[in-house]
Amino acid sequence: MSPLAHLFALPVRAYRLLASPWVGHGCRFQPTCSAYALEALDRHGAIRGGWLTLRRIARCHPWGGEGFDPVPGRSDHQCDHRHGR
């Protein structure tokens, strides 16, 4: 995880430590939004992972759906570009 992604992950970790036990475990999605955020930041970095996290949180409302919603993987083009291929 990049240093900026670690910084973005701090509020998520604080939420999981301090607020999550009080809010309860009624999440509409699997994985939970906080687990999704940490995985997105780890897999995609601060900018794209942050954007994916914001999109996921925006879908968390009564008409936003539910169920299994994994973090999308990197496309082959992005992987090739990062490895200089």
From TrEMBL:
<dbReference type="GO" id="GO:0005886">
    <property type="term" value="C:plasma membrane"/>
</dbReference>
<protein>
    <recommendedName>
        <fullName>Putative membrane protein insertion efficiency factor</fullName>
    </recommendedName>
</protein>
<dbReference type="InterPro" id="IPR002696">
    <property type="entry name" value="Membr_insert_effic_factor_YidD"/>
</dbReference>
<feature type="region of interest" description="Disordered">
    <location>
        <begin position="64"/>
        <end position="85"/>
    </location>
</feature>
<feature type="compositionally biased region" description="Basic and acidic residues">
    <location>
        <begin position="74"/>
        <end position="85"/>
    </location>
</feature>
<comment type="function">
    <text>Could be involved in insertion of integral membrane proteins into the membrane.</text>
</comment>
<comment type="similarity">
    <text>Belongs to the UPF0161 family.</text>
</comment>
<keyword id="KW-0472">Membrane</keyword>
<keyword id="KW-1003">Cell membrane</keyword>
<dbReference type="Pfam" id="PF01809">
    <property type="entry name" value="YidD"/>
</dbReference>
